[in-house]
């Protein structure tokens, strides 16, 4: 993560938790980047990554674990879903690649 | 006649099964994003853990943004 922040990049965590829960979570795991609250599922729906879960017979919808890299022009450069998205290495290499000066 | 009925029942069963399979496949794809590399990332404004709003387009022209969607707070990853 420090590698990412060093390469002209910001990391934004997003989930359906409240800002209060995210604040406690950020403190617990010691993250320095913002954790954003999508409490009404608006962004998750728009990005198409709301996933239904069944908890003891009740239906809930949470985020599918996803990493998306957005470049400086607002274009998507990388999409990774599922358990492999936990590992930020491929996102790091995408960002590092984006910041290499042209012609090198 | 009996043979025709049997064949018809088998066909009906097959169709039913196919319907079930496609329903299962649909459920799997619900969480798959339609966004592809090269698409414009939909803009959003969300409250951060310090209760301040963060807008995706504010980073345009300045920073690359890594959006890390996670399942829930206090879970691994």
Multimerization state: heterodimer
Work out the number of β strands of chain B. 3
CATH architecture of chain A: 3-Layer(aba) Sandwich
| Helix content, binned percent of chain B | 25-40%
CATH topology of chain A: Glutaredoxin
Main sheet specs of chain A: 2 strands, parallel
Q: Uncertain regions of chain B: pLDDT < 50 for 5+ in a row? A: 24-30
Bulk shape of chain A: globular
* Structural class by sheet pairing and helices of chain B: alpha+beta
Rg of Cα set of chain B? 24 Å
Separation, N- and C-terminal Cα atoms of chain B: 61 Å
Structural class label of chain A: alpha+beta
CATH homologous superfamily name of chain A? Glutaredoxin
Helices and strands of chain B, in order, run as HEEE
Q: Residue-averaged pLDDT of chain A, rounded? A: 81
Give the beta-strand count of chain A: 6
The total number of structural domains of chain A is 1
Q: Which strand order does the major sheet of chain A show?
A: 1-2
Write a concise synopsis of the structure shown.
The complex is a heterodimer of chains A (104) and B (77). Chain A is 31% helix and 32% strand. Chain A has one domain: Glutaredoxin (3-Layer(aba) Sandwich), CATH 3.40.30.10.
